[in-house]
């Protein structure tokens, strides 16, 4: 499908416009700093365009062209014609630090075809020691005008360099493009939903557009397959042939436009309109178009149009302004996110929590005890009115609530429910304790909290073996549609990140907790395979087309790579975990409308659709973001202990986030989820599958697991299984427990460590790499067990798995353990 331009510009000849200023100079005017050079081209009529270049060593290389500098479309006696007045007067820009080298201002006055005088200005200031350029437009007319278009910065990226080839494209909330992918792609939507050139501003999660060009940029295919995706397994060979030849560029450069969506451009209206077409099918040109213009979409400009359907009335003498920032920076498109955050002072502060920690426990507890509980079957539902099943993850969260809640009655209620469901699950077999039913995040925690750990973990044997067996020889997993409808969502046998990452994460979590060598080998093989992917895609193929960008795939990528690092200490995997975390940021709303507390931190699930007809653009689905946030929390904890080391990973980083930055991302997502959650009424504790207009909740209504897990982690009560490794002369020792593990010392004969847990409780642990002759806890011998441990104190050696199990009493919170 080819999208055609909305309109053709009719440019008035300059002879038809009355000149009010001095004759222009034909001399070019340039400004530059360490990163970017702007050369405004002097022509007979004045300045109408600029060449944009990036610093490459000691030289400058062209990366984009900016033209025209001005365009006005209005209702006039001649009709709605486009007028491109040139600027004939150029001066040094004003402001602190402005010089002729880094600042320029264009000011002019001309009359339109109705004889009305217009004054228009453009100020351009390069920030010192920064790849950013501040742009400020002003327009004013001496008589009332009906305006259909005031064009601001109109950039053609790739002009005079890579042409229509690119490396990346990013329009957060709408587009995340790699290589030869085109924007407004019909691959992920049924027409007309695929058109995303001028979107509703509420669909934009971060107000920026970016295109990256470089030596590996790919030309678009003239007639691509419906599902063509450059970083999919099947299309990787095709994409390799699309690489440009003999590029002048030695590395990637990103050109971006940033803006404040809430700027009052006429004193009353917000939301400048944005235009994005990559490649430039708007005008049939061999480049990539990014532009900002007035008036607003959708108040005046219909969505995906390029001029107002309803003209904006500009009253005589009133000044209209448009402010934006141009970025020209080395690196992938996500550097635009980094620069936008710099311009706004960093990540936004989360909204105040709607409830205290204890109040949130109350709300979530009510959800588990009442709202999502099936009294008849004594099981839980994933969503209100859905079929019930055992949910060990819910029981684990209630077990923690029974120790953390301040109210004794609340603790008693949670404890009673846990004991009931534990009895029921054990009746159906201990292996049910490791079921992930009804949960997005929780996985295998309950037996580490409540016991029966040996039988529960043994129940995973077949599952893990089958997961390894299903792995393709090259290391990934292929898309296998479950039915005829899912077969329409992608190509059977193809691979993207989302078809692999969750399976890899499961193997590597198992390897991290148990020390299993086969799971680790298969997991690392998967991670090496996953390094071919660049955009997170395909995490929700039960309903979503597999090639559309997907935050859930990013979440699983973070988890898989981070657990691999926790097992191996290989810095490459930590680097890759950060990469996939960075790819998730464009899915998060980092700006907000006033009086819409659900918006800040809300997350778009996919830049795409369900079955091509239900669009998720501008429709947050918070559970997807909450899964991402929890795995990012663990990554943030890791980065607090260990800074990133240099590796040869092919995945490019850009954001330079600190551990504190990543934790702020987690809190932003969690707090939005808390605002979306029902705090009272018959749905208390539940939260919606989706919201619209950042205030309207829509079914299904989910259980509170994803919210509570993040809240617990942020409050220092992370429910995850803890793992620590040590090494002695016999090899590696792995310790996994529900308790915090501290002061680990490997000895020639065994290992010593401390376990910090709830006083008066048993903690349950699994160890690999050490076989006990004696276990001493707080100076007292722990009795060996003749069989698998249930909920009694003791230790047991699992000979087939070579695992040592401990059930340790905590008379006080901290227990000192020594194994000989």
Q: Can you describe what's shown?
A:
Helix 12 packs parallel to helix 14 (622-641). The radius of gyration is 30 Å and the shape is elongated. The model is unreliable at 1-23 (pLDDT under 50). By secondary structure, the protein is an alpha+beta fold. 24% of the residues lie in helices and 26% in strands. It has 16 helices and 36 strands. The strands form seven sheets. Strands 1, 2, 3, 4, 5, 6, 11, 16, 17 and 18 form a ten-stranded antiparallel sheet that branches. It has a nine-stranded antiparallel sheet with strand order 7-8-9-10-19-15-14-12-13, covered by helices on one side. A five-stranded antiparallel sheet has the order 27-28-31-35-34.
Structural descriptors:
820 residues, alpha+beta, ten-stranded antiparallel beta sheet, nine-stranded antiparallel beta sheet, 16 helices, disordered N terminus
């Amino acid at each position: 499908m080819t999208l055609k331009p909305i309109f053709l510009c009719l440019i008035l000849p300059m002879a038809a416009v009355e000149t009010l200023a001095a004759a222009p100079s034909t001399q070019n005017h340039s400004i530059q700093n360490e990163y970017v050079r702007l050369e405004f081209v002097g022509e007979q009529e004045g300045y109408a365009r600029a060449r944009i270049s990036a610093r490459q060593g000691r030289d400058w290389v062209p990366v984009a062209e900016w033209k025209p500098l001005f365009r006005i479309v209005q209702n006039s006696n001649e009709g709605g014609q486009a007028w491109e007045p040139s600027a004939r007067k150029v001066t040094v820009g004003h402001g602190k630090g402005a010089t002729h080298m880094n600042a320029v201002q264009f000011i002019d006055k001309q009359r339109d075809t109705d004889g009305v005088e217009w004054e228009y200005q453009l100020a351009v200031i390069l920030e010192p020691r920064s790849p950013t350029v501040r742009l400020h437009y002003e327009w004013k007319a001496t008589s009332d005008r009906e305006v259909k278009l005031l064009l601001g910065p109109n950039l053609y990226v790739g002009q005079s360099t890579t042409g229509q080839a690119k490396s990346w494209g990013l329009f957060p909330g709408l587009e995340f493009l790699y290589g030869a992918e085109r924007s407004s792609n019909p691959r992920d939507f049924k027409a007309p939903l695929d058109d995303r050139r001028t979107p509703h501003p509420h669909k934009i999660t971060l107000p920026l557009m970016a295109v990256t060009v470089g030596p590996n940029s790919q030309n678009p295919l003239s007639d691509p397959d419906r599902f063509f995706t450059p970083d999919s397994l099947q299309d990787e060979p095709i994409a390799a042939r699309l690489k440009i030849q003999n590029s002048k560029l030695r590395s990637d450069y990103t050109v971006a436009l940033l803006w404040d969506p809430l700027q009052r451009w006429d004193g009353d209206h917000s939301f400048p309109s944005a235009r994005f077409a990559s490649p430039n099918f708007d005008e049939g040109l061999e480049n990539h178009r990014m532009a900002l213009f007035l008036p607003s979409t959708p108040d005046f400009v219909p969505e995906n149009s390029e001029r107002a359907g309803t003209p904006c009335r500009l009253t005589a003498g009133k000044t209209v302004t448009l402010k934006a920032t141009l970025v020209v920076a080395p690196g992938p498109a996500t550097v635009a996110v980094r620069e936008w955050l710099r311009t706004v002072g960093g990540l936004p502060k989360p909204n105040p929590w709607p409830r205290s920690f204890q109040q949130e426990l109350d709300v979530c507890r009510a959800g588990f005890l009442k709202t999502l509980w099936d009294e008849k079957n004594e099981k839980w539902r994933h969503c209100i009115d859905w079929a019930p099943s055992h949910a060990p993850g819910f029981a684990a969260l209630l077990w923690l609530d029974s120790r953390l809640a301040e109210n004794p009655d609340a603790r008693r209620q949670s404890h009673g429910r846990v004991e009931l469901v534990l009895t029921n699950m054990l009746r159906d077999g201990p292996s049910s304790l490791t079921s992930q039913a009804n949960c997005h995040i929780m996985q295998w925690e309950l037996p580490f909290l409540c016991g029966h750990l040996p039988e529960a973990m043994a129940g995973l044997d077949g599952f893990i073996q089958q997961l390894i067996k299903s792995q393709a020889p090259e290391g990934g997993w292929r898309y296998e549609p479950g039915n005829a409808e899912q077969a329409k969502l992608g190509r059977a046998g193809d691979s993207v990140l989302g078809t692999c990452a969750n399976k890899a994460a499961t193997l590597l979590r198992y390897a991290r907790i148990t020390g299993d060598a086969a799971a680790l080998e298969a997991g690392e093989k998967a991670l090496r395979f996953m390094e071919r992917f660049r955009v997170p895609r395909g995490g929700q193929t039960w309903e979503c087309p597999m090639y559309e960008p997907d935050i859930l795939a990013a979440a699983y990528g973070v988890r898989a790579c981070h657990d691999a690092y926790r097992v191996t200490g290989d810095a490459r995997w930590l680097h890759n975990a950060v990469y996939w975390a960075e790819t998730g940021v464009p899915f998060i709303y980092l700006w907000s409308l006033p009086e819409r507390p659900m918006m800040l931190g809300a997350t778009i699930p996919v830049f795409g659709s369900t079955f091509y007809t239900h669009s998720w653009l501008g429709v947050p689905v918070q559970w997807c973001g909450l899964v991402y946030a929890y795995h990012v929390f663990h990554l943030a904890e890791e980065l607090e202990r260990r800074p990133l080391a240099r590796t040869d990973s092919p995945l490019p980083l850009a954001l330079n986030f600190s551990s504190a930055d990543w934790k702020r991302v987690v809190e932003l997502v969690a707090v939005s989820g808390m605002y979306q959650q029902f705090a009272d009424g018959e749905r208390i504790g539940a939260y919606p599958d989706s919201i619209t207009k950042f205030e309207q909740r829509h079914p299904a209504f989910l259980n509170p697991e994803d919210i509570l897990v993040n809240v617990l982690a942020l409050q220092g009560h992370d429910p995850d299984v803890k793992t620590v490794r040590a090494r002695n002369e016999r090899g590696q020792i792995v310790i996994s427990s529900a308790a915090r593990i501290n002061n680990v010392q490997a000895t020639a004969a065994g290992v010593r460590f401390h376990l910090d847990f709830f006083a008066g409780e048993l903690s349950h642990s699994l160890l690999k790499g050490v076989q006990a002759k004696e276990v001493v806890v707080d100076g007292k011998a722990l009795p060996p067990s003749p069989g698998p441990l249930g909920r009694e104190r003791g230790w047991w050696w699992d000979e087939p798995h070579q695992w040592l199990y401990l059930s340790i009493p905590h008379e006080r919170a901290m227990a000192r353990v020594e194994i000989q």
